[in-house]
Structure formats: structure tokens, C-alpha cells
Amino acid sequence: QVQLVESGGGLVQPGGSLRLTCTTSGFTLDYSAIGWFRQAPGKEREGVACISSSDGSAYYVDSVKGRFTISRDKAKNTVNLEMNSLKPEDTAVYYCAVDHPGRPNYSKEYYYLGGRLWGMDYWGKGTLVTVSS
Predict the structure, then answer these.
(1) What pLDDT, on the 0 to 100 scale, is given for residue 32?
(2) Quick count: other Cβ atoms within 10 Å of Cβ 38?
(3) Left (φ > 0), alpha (ψ -120 to 50) or beta: where does 15 sit?
(4) 105: buried, middle or exposed (CB in 10 Å: 19+, 13-18, 0-12)?
């Protein structure tokens, strides 16, 4: 069974940093695209950063480029999101999601990010990040 568990959220001042961790199980991380998504109060969920399954390249939404870094640790089955220079508009619930290989298209939730279309099948419950002074 695929499981995704996010951790690392909390309250941070503007300009500060946080590191989110997604702990995964139930699938082979090497062959799955995985990423971070967020939903701010009153807004729709958006893609933040994703790693492709083909070559491990990272893709980011424009608003976080140069500030956030996504990384994958295959040995630990984890995916991290290092967030620096945080802004109040970064306040949101952050979700980890995976594009599971072999799943049909109708089971996926699609997002555009980095000029690509990402179809995510499984989601964690989210972790809240609040950026405020």
C-alpha cells in the first residue's frame, strides 16, 4: 500500500527557512515522479516542486524558483523540500504526492508545473507552513 507522510511544517518568520520531509512506502521511488503541492487558505491547490522519474530533474513553480529546493533520498525513501527566504504568501498546507507507475489516467489529479503535465495518484495528509511575524 502506498503511503506518504509529510513532516516539518510549522511557524516561521518571513525570511526564515524550513525543511519539509515526505516519508514514502509501498512503491519504488526510483521509478516514480514525486513532488510537493500546496493549498493556501481560499485558494486552489498548486504545484510547487516536482522531480521527474526519467532523469531526476527538478521543476519549480515560478514563485519559488531560487528559494526552494526539492531533493530525493532513495536510500531513505524520502523527499525533502528545503524552503528559504520564506514569504507570507508561502503560507499553506503542503502536500507530498506521487505519480505512481501503472495507474490509469482517470485515477490521477493533474497539475501543470515547469511546462509539463504531472498526474499524481497518491497524496499525503499535508503539513501546515505558516509564515508570519
Answers:
(1) 86
(2) 23
(3) left
(4) exposed
Question: DSSP labels for the chain?
Answer: --EEEEE--EEE-TT--EEEEEEEESS-GGGSEEEEEEE-TTS--EEEEEE-TTT--EEE-GGGTTTEEEEEETTTTEEEEEE-S--GGG-EEEEEEEE-TT--GGG-EEEEETTEEEEE-EE---EEEEE--
Contact yes or no for 72/34 (Cβ under 8 A): yes
Nearest Cα to 40, choosing from 125, 122, 130, 117? 130
Residue 108 CB-density burial (10 A; 0-12 exposed, 13-18 middle, 19+ buried): middle
Instruction: Examine the pLDDT at 80 and tell me if it is beyond 90.
Output: yes
Q: What is the pLDDT of residues 39-70, one digit of tens each?
A: 999 999 999 999 998 888 999 999 999 999 99
50 torsion bin: left (phi>0), alpha (psi -120 to 50), beta (else): beta
- 87-124: pLDDT as tens digits: 999 999 999 999 987 788 888 999 999 999 999 999 99
